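Title: Comparing notes on inverse folding

I've been comparing how different people in this forum approach sequence design from structure. To keep things fair, I'm posting one structure and asking everyone to reply with a full sequence. Here's the target:
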């Protein structure tokens, strides 16, 4: 099959490209660095010629809720319209477990807008909601770190390996559209502060961590909000295995 990956140079997108090519599929890479801009549509029609399915693993950085909804919305509308025109038969969206349970941060608002547009859109779809990735704690520390100190919310998460997410996206993309895919999660629950501490230790970095609910994630994110439903698809790689492999 000919499959396009939007966000092909990103964390999950690049691994999805590898997973699809290993299965013998022809992959079209969509990102600004490959000459396709989803916020303007530049290069998109040519990229989608002859494409059977699209995996959307793009990400955007927006300062606030309105900006996130606007940018995710614009990119998704542009992509779906071009797919409909090109006769794409399956749109696969990578989303996040729990965004329907809390208002959350601006990113969640943008992801909900993406889900809404895909579910109401012209192309048959599958939405794959994943839990936080194993590198999530490192990313959160990166956002907050100032002078060797970082605030981190003690979120309860059930993180999943990026490579496992990519394998599932590749598998879903070559199958039939299924609507909502079961939640995708890793095998064990973790405390985000503990994940951050273990990741920093593995990287040989000294950062003092301050647990708090007054940073990016507030107390509405406490409890089981981010955990997968019963019936979730559980991917095999543990956080510890990933940590050893990523050292
Ligand atoms: N982090 C988590 O724990 C987690 C958990 C569940 C789900 N997710 C979801 O996973 C998705 C992928 O995340 P990620 O960390 O893999 O993303 P990432 O590494 O930040 O990669 C983002 C990709 O989007 C592309 N992109 C951005 N703007 C674009 C534009 N205007 N046109 C075309 N391409 C554009 C980037 O390429 P260029 O810069 O070259 O354009 C890049 O390839 C996100 O939607 C996120 O919500 C994340």
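Reply #1:
Here's my take.
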């Amino acid at each position: 099959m000919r499959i396009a990956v939007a966000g092909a140079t990103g964390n999950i997108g690049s691994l999805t490209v590898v997973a699809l090519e290993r299965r013998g599929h022809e992959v079209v890479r969509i990102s600004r660095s490959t000459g396709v801009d989803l916020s303007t549509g530049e290069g998109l029609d040519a990229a989608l010629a002859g494409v059977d399915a699209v995996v959307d693993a793009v990400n955007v950085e927006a300062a606030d809720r309105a900006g996130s909804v606007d940018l995710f919305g614009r990119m998704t509308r542009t992509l779906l319209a071009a797919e409909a025109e090109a006769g794409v038969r399956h749109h696969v969206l990578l989303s996040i477990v729990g965004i329907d349970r809390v208002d959350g941060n601006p990113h969640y608002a943008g992801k909900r807008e993406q889900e809404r547009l895909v579910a109401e859109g012209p192309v048959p779809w599958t939405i794959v909601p994943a839990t936080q990735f194993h590198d999530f704690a490192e990313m959160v520390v990166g956002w907050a770190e100032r002078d060797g100190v970082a605030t981190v919310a003690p979120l309860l998460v059930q993180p999943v390996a990026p490579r496992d997410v990519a394998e599932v996206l590749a598998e879903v993309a070559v199958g039939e559209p299924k609507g909502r895919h079961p939640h995708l999660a890793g095998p064990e629950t973790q405390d985000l502060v503990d994940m951050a501490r273990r990741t920093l230790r593995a990287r040989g970095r000294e950062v003092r961590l301050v647990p708090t609910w007054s940073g990016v994630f507030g107390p509405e994110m406490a409890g089981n909000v981010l955990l997968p439903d019963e019936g979730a698809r559980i991917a095999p790689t543990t956080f510890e295995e990933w940590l050893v492999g990523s050292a």
